[in-house]
Amino acid sequence: MLRTARSLALALLAVGAHAGLAYADAPADAPLDFSAELKELSAIAACDGRGFDEAKFDKATVDAHCKALAPIIERYKTEWLTVARPFFADLVPADIPKTVVYPFGGADLMTVLAVFPDVHELTTLSLEAGGDPRQFGGIDKQRLARSLALHRQFIDKLITVNHSRTLDLGRLKLDPMPSQVVFGLVGLATHGYEPVSLKYFRLNDDGTVHYLTAADVAAGEKAIGKVKSTARTLRLAELFGSFELTFRKGPGAPLQTYRHISANLDNEHLAADPRPIKHLAAKGDVTAMTKAASYLLWWGSFETVRDYLLGHMVWMVSDSTGIPPNYLDPAKFEIVTYGKFLGTLLKGSKEGQDAYVKAWAEQPARALPFMFGYPGKGQHAHLVVTKRKK
After folding, report:
1. Which in 83, 132, 239, 348 has the greatest CB count within 10 A?
2. DSSP labels for 127-169?
3. SS3 111
4. What is the pLDDT of residues 174-212, one digit of tens each?
């Protein structure tokens, strides 16, 4: 017992040293709060203007990144946001739930806050892991420059084509920055929100949240052992897979909560590990959103998450990768179409495509002056609202 206690104490000291903060002084069972790392990441990667420790990070490198990022964000604001924000302000009902679920969404706070600026609680779910927030603290300026350039490249692509590919996002798994957190922070800075706190969690068997403690991290690092390089980075990313980021519009404004759950949402994985569905079901009625989701909700292999949405969503906005009409009970749901849809560019089921083409053909033309997710055949922008009937 003494040896076990001593080992845990040493491991906790290592966690504190690794993080560069006084985590070793925190109780072993207290949730770890990475607010200091959050604020540094926001200043360095999202260029929020709040400053960072120039003794730890090369100012010239950060300044060069922020100078290169500024026109990308300005292009997003002038070419997309100024058109999309008024559209969504008119489109989104005031009385729908402020709890939003966004499957296959990654850390797309950029779009969520354009659609739902007053969201109370957002949950995204995707394969991507949040990432270890401690890794970037000691990197040299060359690696920092490479990391910032890589993230900037993906932000630019998201803004240019309005979606990111899972295959592309896989390139970020070995980066020292927690990429999903970085993308969330860029979204916050772009829309004028400030980050407040960052915690990591795993789901208990009943779907409730268990925040990672110093003891959890120490145990996780012990399980990883002496594995080094690529394998270690990937294992640490899994340990820090799901995170909770709180934010607000400004001092005194109410806190808003964003959780990202790293999970495979196909039927097989959710049958083996139903915790994500239990977590979502406990929220009751929700508002939903998805876009650029590879048409996964069209397939039988994603029936579990599709059935969850059909049982809990009150209102959903999506591109054609949402739930197609062939899965909707007309007694319970109705859809409203915008833009033009003649078919999919990526492979989807014939039943889903035919159902959507028919729906667009039967409804009056409604303009959509911006791209939302994937373009359809002919590069047409399109959007669909799915509503539960009252």
Report:
1. 132
2. S-----TTGGGG--HHHHHHHHHHHHHHHHHHHHHS---HHHH
3. helix
4. 788 999 999 999 999 999 999 999 999 999 999 999 999
Q: Give which of 105, 100, 97 is closest to 125, Cα–Cα.
A: 105
Q: Which of these, 314, 253, 245, 305, lies nearest to 280 by C-alpha position? A: 305
Q: Report the C-alpha gap between 323 and 224 in whole angstroms.
A: 39
Phi–psi pair at 243, nearest 5 degrees: -140, 160
- Both tokens assigned to 204: 């208990």
- Cα–Cα dist 212/242, whole Å: 10
Q: Residue 3: is it exposed, middle or buried by C-beta count within 10 angstroms (0-12/13-18/19+)?
A: exposed
For 144-158, write each residue's pLDDT tens digit: 999 999 999 989 988
First to last CA, the chain: 60
Strands 333-339 and 194-203: unpaired
Quick one: which of 84, 135, 115, 129 has its CA closest to 317?
115
How many other CB atoms sit within 10 Å of the CB of residue 218? 22
Q: How distant, in Å, are the alpha carbons of 30, 165, 388 from that of 215?
A: 9, 35, 44
pLDDT in tens, 283-327: 999 999 999 999 999 999 999 999 999 999 999 999 999 999 999
As a whole number of angstroms, the distance between CA 276 and CA 103 comes to 11
φ/ψ of residue 154, rounded to 5: -75, -35
Tell me which H or E stretch contains 99: strand 99-103
The first and second tokens of residue 209, run together, are 């949240």
Query: Hey, CA dihedral for 229, 235, 238, 244, is it positive or negative?
Result: negative
Predicted TM-score (pTM) of the model is: 0.91
